[in-house]
Amino acid sequence: MKRASLGVSVVGVAVLTLAPLTVLAPATAAGDNSGADRVRTAAALRLGDQESLVVRDVVVDANGAEHVRYDRTYAGLRVIGGDLVVHESPAGDVRTVSWASPDRIVVAGTTPAISGQTAADAAARRSGLESGSAAPERVVYASDHKPVLAWETTVTGTAADGTPVRDLVYTDARTGKQLGTRPLIVNANGTGSSLYSGTVGIQTNLSGSSYQLYDTTRGGHRTYDANNSTSTSTGTLMTDADNAWGNGSTSSRQSAAVDAHYGAAVTWDFFKDAYGRSGIRNDGVAAYSRVHYGNSYENAFWDDSCFCMTYGDGGTTFSPLTSLDVAGHEMSHGVTSHTANLNYSGDAGGLNEATSDVFGTMVEFKAANASDPGDYYIGEKIAKDGTYLRRMDNPSADGASVNCWTSATRNLDPHYSSGVGNHLFYLLAEGAGTKTIGGRTHTGTTCNGSSLTGIGRTQAAAIWYRALTTYMTSTTTYPQARDAMVRSAKDLYGAASSQCTATANAWSGVSVSGSETCGGTTPAPSGNLLANPGFESGAVSWSATSGVITSSTSATPRTGSYYAWLNGYGTTTTDTLSQTVAVPSGKSSATLSFYVKVSSAETTTTSAYDTLKVQAVSGGVTTTLATYSNLNKGSSYVQRSLNLNSYIGKTVTVKFLGTEDSSLATSFFVDDTSLTTG
């Protein structure tokens, strides 16, 4: 039977129900609405009578522990800088909370003394820009500030270098004093590349007799020609007659588009393969790219409002800004926006920029492109004078960035305060000393004179990513980021692990200390490392093709109501099912087990037309552990067990990949999965 596409949506906005949550006590039964429980929970989360929380994101660990990121409201008004992350045990107990602003929200009424239009006009005058089209909104401003009633207004315009400006401005609704700004357009300050990626494979789409720069395999990413305009329009979708794009020089407008399209694909693959993240918002939907923006525009930027990357052609200083590290940098701004949402000022601003440099660099290493080998230089391919924009091994070499943190770092431009984070990542990944990477000399020197040995960029990036998505908030400072990364290292590798110790030592190497410590014997997760192993919570914790995780009565689960149903259409299809877990170190064995049933209309006893591959993805390398096919068809579920010993101490994505040819349906049913260690 050909099946319809059935799915369970897990994307949405939910309001925190305080009643079922208990704080530092055993979980209450579902539906417990006792007043005492609500008061205890509210008090522990420092919530006043008029405060509510709205879920923005949920991270589920392999052992079932949850990290729920909330935005806060007060009397129905959004609280800027009020975000927090609640960390729950596998049993549902609230253990700790990461706060952007720990203060209970109290404001003297919600009636403003000045109008929203007055605030908007004042913000425009101060900035020398124009009021935006969005209506002023009353909010509570608590971002590194005592909570006050404020107006959020928008100003728009163009910076001196031609970069479009779209800023949120916060104005005290009683005094008219400007409280802060938040740019919606985040630029890379001239980082980028010329057309130096060589001949690369790119995913295109045939429409009629014309090929389009449209990647249907990665969320529908499209690349447009902005036609040298500075308008907000998408521009013209790049097309070609023979699917042979560009000529490797700026004489063809397609060449820059090839670099941007290729960079977007590698960035998508990096986040997917390394962390199981499906696109910037983790919703399977791609952003889009625009090239040839403006005339001789020497910049590139991410714009959250259009969910897009934009690249200039360069001019006096830079060549076209479409290199691998720039593409990775820009899209990582989007990842930051949809996770910790780090402010673009103070230490948080430096961390925002450093995050993009870290993952832009990881994208460059991911590509393993001989024409642009991985290194820790930023923008080295586009500088016409043969230098670079920033260096992670020695940030101060650019004459403006800083290697070591002080309380004054927060006053720097984020592109320069990012030096602390960049330096930290390099020391953690590579250690101190001099080495050649990607054909370039790198020298890492600590601020405290210590000698450090790196843990490798894959583990360093995994620790950074977990800290970003699990513990950091909009106002995180460098000392708080240090504690977030030490805690993440303990989560991934154990409190007594060398990775945890190296993380703490690397932060000391950039003059940052904190309260989170390593040591002791933190037990690694026991039992089943896979969350939601029998799919009974729907698509929670798994990344899957729409409809794969289902409770359809057209087939049967092994146990419970839900199961995974891959393929079964009788047409050419590919379905995937995956989950990323950290396999604890110090174990003697790791085993992946699952139950699989194959139902097929194929009658052959010799040809595997339709297949289910079970794969492990780690460090960008995909290994097929086992393959099942229509030749394995049967009427009942069969348990299979596969050896994962080589992934002990690593982060691995367990993936089921089902492919089906153009005729005669084969369905692969998977249920009751487990990943256990011995």
UniProtKB/TrEMBL annotation:
Segments forming domain Peptidase M4: 190-337
Gene3D superfamilies: 3.10.170.10, 3.10.450.490, Galactose-binding domain-like (2.60.120.260), Neutral Protease Domain 2 (1.10.390.10)
Keyword Protease part of the UniProt annotation: yes
One Pfam match: FTP
Entry keyword set: Hydrolase, Metal-binding, Metalloprotease, Protease, Secreted, Signal, Zinc
Keyword Glycoprotein tagged: no
Occurrences of domain FTP (ranges): 52-98
EC number: 3.4.24.-
Required cofactor(s): Zn(2+)
Compartments (UniProt record): Secreted
Main location (coarse class): secreted
Domain Peptidase M4 C-terminal stretches: 340-512
CDD domains: M4_TLP (cd09597)
Extent of the signal sequence: 1-29
Enzyme class: hydrolase
Function statement: Extracellular zinc metalloprotease.
Family from the record: Belongs to the peptidase M4 family.
PANTHER family named in the record: BACILLOLYSIN
Protein name: Neutral metalloproteinase
Taxonomic lineage of the native organism: Bacteria, Bacillati, Actinomycetota, Actinomycetes, Propionibacteriales
